[in-house]
Amino acid sequence: MGDSLGATLRISETTSEALTGAAVTAGVGVVASTAVKGVVSGAKVASKFENAADTGSLAKVASKTDDVASAAKVGILDNSPQVLKIPQGLTLVEFDKMSSYLLENVGHISSDIRIQGSRAAGTAKVTSDIDIAIMVDPSEFSNIIKHRFKTPNLNSAKERTMKHAVETGKIQSGEAGLRGVRKQLERDIGLEVDISIIKKDGAFDNPPYIQINK
Fold this sequence. Notes:
Elements: E1 8-10, H1 13-16, H2 32-35, E2 40-41, E3 44-46, H3 52-55, H4 68-72, H5 92-106, E4 113-116, H6 118-121, E5 130-136, H7 138-149, H8 157-168, E6 170-171, H9 173-176, H10 179-189, E7 193-199, E8 210-211
Parallel strand pairs: 5-7
Antiparallel strand pairs: 1-3, 2-3, 4-5, 4-8, 6-7
């Protein structure tokens, strides 16, 4: 690599084979402290590090983001290369704040609250929403259905909505009484939010997940 990395770190072919993740993991700490110091693009990192020892702890390079700012906000990888610890597009501070708000406002429904979809997988686009799943057991899901829908009129829109919720194992924010929570989260994090009550082992109980911070 030479005596100095200068502005660009050239990564060997052997190393670059491992650079297929959607985020940066490093012993040097959070993504922002490393990714924002250079341009993340495929197997190159424009870096201000002065020697290879400074960058030797980097395990993966964000390769699916359009710029440094988005790369720095992708999240930190868990042991599995497909699972993020922080939803793509959020900082740790934003995720902590969102987690606290969710526990305070919907924790009475279930404390098992997860991020699903593209922002958990690290494949989100700029316009992608963030999917929040409040996970409940099948018996509790049935109780919530009865409480929220009661006995709708035969062949009414409400009955059709209830049947759809039962079939899919998903109660949308409106039917779950969570519109206010959704709107507040959207104001807090600047992203569209889809928050729903999800039946465990149902059609929408799909990995990858990111458990909210507790």
